[in-house]
Design brief:
Elements: H1 11-18, H2 22-34, E1 41-47, H3 53-56, E2 81-88, H4 99-109, H5 139-146, E3 158-161, H6 173-176, E4 180-182, E5 185-186, H7 193-200, H8 202-206, H9 211-219, H10 229-236, H11 244-261, H12 289-310, E6 316-320, H13 330-333, H14 345-349, H15 355-380, E7 383-384, E8 387-388, E9 393-399, E10 414-418, E11 428-437, H16 438-448
Parallel strand pairs: 1-6, 1-9, 2-11, 3-6
Antiparallel strand pairs: 2-10, 4-5, 7-8, 9-10
């Protein structure tokens, strides 16, 4: 039996020797963890259409704040969360173009949206025009190119969505894309969990980045993990004894996830049998498939992100729950809804402050918050290195406006979670005064990550790295 204290294989040549084999890609993070090297990660989460600030922000301040109704679900991760008030969306309110699209672009890029070449003349001055885009890379891509700790995995970054209606071909990009690699260089999100699994984890478990190859394996009624069983057996003998149970548990978790989000036909014989369907529910009557599967799809995407992080397939991920003009009706995707509004979040966000309208807005915020909180708790409960998966991931959860009715730019509801390696000021509620822009939060993040940044984005939307966010 191996003695863990004698495990002295040189990390760099050994990991290089593992190459891009499927088992090697699973074992690389375990080897790194055994030698005290744990990946650092960035996860950015967007929810659309504003909310109900009165029910979002806590009362009190500092570590003894009273948690608000819409943050109740986050109570179990409170010690790993920073709540902030006083953040403004960096955009010019009077500029033409859809305000939700402008808000998404501003929050992620730190500059005003622009009209890319080829924009129709009438769109140049349209108040709600959709031909707008980011003229610069967004913060996820800036972080990826400037922070050494985020580089290395096979997949530099992943972009996911909580609905297929946010994918390419489903509507205006400015409302659906939250990541840009450069001027109008759109990084469209994937809104199908089975395809996301194959694209992201298929390369880990089959040693190929070809989604068709992973799909062919499924069509042949073979788990992608069975494909690498020989590799796993061989590699298991090369890792520290302490890491073997983690490898076994990790492989089992990926197998369960694969069965959950993909269609796996049962063994044939004795007649034709119906294939096992994905667990994402289907719509019925007036409820569309997109509405019926919305919550389950988002949960599946978080499971994929978690596995991708654990496999070190990527260290940067973004997910948008729905587009900035979302028409997915909360009445149809929130279980046991008690409000009566039947419109989508965007329409509801512009319907004033009647009791039922406010109840609908709050219910949508609560719905998304509960899913995020559960994902964060899962990461908090996942040991990694000397801490947890959440400790080693900075999570940013945001909206493009605070109140949908007037596209309010002030007091954007933003949560930061995890980020222990950056000394995030967790367990606190801070009210920032005078207000700062989201750019100043990003500048503080980059600076804490070892990339000194005086101003992120447009200088007119910057006051310097925000204080007390990172210690």
């Amino acid at each position: 039996m191996k003695n863990e204290k004698t495990f002295r294989i040189s990390r760099r040549p050994f990991l290089a020797g593992l190459g891009a084999t499927a088992a090697g890609m699973l074992i690389r993070p375990l080897i790194a963890e055994a030698q005290g090297v744990v990946p650092q990660r960035l996860l950015i989460i967007h929810r659309p259409c504003g909310g109900v600030p009165a029910q979002w922000f806590p009362t009190g301040t500092g570590p003894n704040y009273t948690i608000s109704p819409l943050l109740q679900a986050f109570a179990p991760v409170r010690s790993n969360m920073l709540v902030m008030k006083g953040i403004k969306c960096p955009r010019t309110q009077s500029n033409p173009g859809d305000k939700h699209g402008q808000g998404i672009i501003g929050m992620m890029s730190g500059v005003d949206a622009y009209h890319p070449p080829g924009t129709p003349e009438k769109e140049m001055t349209a108040p709600d025009g959709k031909f707008i885009a980011s003229p610069v890379p967004t913060i996820d891509q800036v972080a990826l190119t400037s922070i050494a700790a985020l580089k290395g995995p096979t997949i530099p970054s992943i972009q996911l969505a909580g609905t297929r209606t946010s994918m390419q071909g489903s509507g205006s990009a400015c409302l659906r894309v939250i990541s840009y690699s450069g001027p109008n260089l759109l990084m469209w999100p994937e809104g199908r969990s089975d395809i996301a699994f194959n694209n992201i984890l298929g390369s880990v478990t089959t040693g190929t980045s070809d989604p068709a190859a992973a799909a062919r394996l499924q069509a042949q009624n073979k788990s992608v993990l069975d494909f690498v069983s020989g590799d796993l057996t061989r590699m298991k003998s090369l890792i520290p004894v302490s890491q073997v149970p983690k490898l076994d548990a990790h492989v089992q978790a990926i197998r369960e996830l694969e069965l959950k989000v993909t269609t796996m036909p049962p063994p044939t014989g004795g007649g034709c049998t119906k294939p096992t369907l994905a667990m994402q529910p289907k719509g019925a009557g007036s409820i569309s498939n997109d509405e019926a599967e919305h919550g389950t799809l988002i949960k599946n995407m978080f499971s994929i992100i978690k596995s991708a992080f654990q496999c070190d397939a990527t260290r940067v991920a973004t997910i948008t729950f729905a587009n900035g003009n979302s028409n997915l009706a909360p009445k149809d995707f929130i279980p046991e809804a008690t409000f009566t509004a039947t419109e989508g979040p965007h329409t509801v966000s512009h319907n004033g402050n009647g009791a039922d309208v406010v109840a609908t807005k709050a219910a949508a915020e609560k719905f998304y918050g509960e899913i995020v909180a559960a994902a964060m708790l899962d990461m908090q409960n996942t040991p990694e290195g000397s801490g947890t998966l959440l400790d080693n991931t900075l999570v940013v959860y945001w909206n493009e406006c605070s109140i949908g009715d007037d596209h309010n730019q002030n007091d954007i509801p933003v949560l930061l979670l995890g980020g222990k390696f950056l000394k995030l000021n967790v367990g606190n509620y801070i009210q920032i005064s005078p207000i700062v822009y989201m750019n100043d939060i990003w500048a503080a993040m980059l600076t804490a990550w070892g990339v000194p940044t005086t101003v992120f984005g447009d200088a007119k939307f910057g006051k310097g790295p925000a204080a007390n966010v990172f210690l």
